[in-house]
Amino acid sequence: LITMIVYDLQVMLGLYLYFISPNVKAAFEAGMKMTMSDTQLRYVAVEHIFAMVLGVILLHVGNVLVKKAPDAKAAFKRMAITVLVVFLLVMVSIPWPFLPYGRVLFRGM
């Protein structure tokens, strides 16, 4: 439950930042054809937001599956699988510096 609450808050903050971001504004002003052809713009405007919203949906579906589990062992197994899948999705969706659309991890360093 705490994992879901923290992730929901993170997604809400991310959505707020998404809609005020100058990068996203530039992507929408460039048009969908230009945005989809540019790796950086596509990542900022489409891929990252899609993966994070998909992660929160998967986490909520996993929570429902955990509640419907017949016993504690099955519940823990379902939650472990759900959290692992969401964790991997989030890790893949981070703009690591070594990726084509990557960013620096710590600005000013």
Structure write-up:
- The protein has 109 residues and is an all-alpha fold.
- It has 5 helices and no strands.
- Helix 1 (2-20) packs antiparallel against helix 4 (39-67), helix 2 (22-30) packs across helix 4 and helix 4 runs antiparallel to helix 5.
- It is elongated and about 50 Å long.
Radius of gyration: 17 Å
| Poorly predicted runs of 5 or more residues | none
Strand content: under 5%
Biggest sheet descriptor: none
Task: Report mean pLDDT, rounded to a whole number.
Answer: 89
Q: How would the global form be characterised?
A: elongated
- The total beta strand count reads 0
SSE order: HHHHH
**Number of H- or I-type helical stretches:** 5
What is the helix fraction of residues, given as a range? Answer: over 70%
How many domain regions?
1
Overall structural class, as computed from helix and strand content, comes to mainly alpha
What's the end-to-end separation, in Å?
36 Å
Summary of the model, kept short:
This protein is mostly helical and 109 residues long. It has 5 helices and no strands.
Itemize the secondary structure elements and their pairings.
Blueprint: H1 2-20, H2 22-30, H3 32-37, H4 39-67, H5 72-93
Helix pairs in contact: 1-4, 2-4, 4-5
Name its key features.
109 residues, mainly alpha, 5 helices, elongated
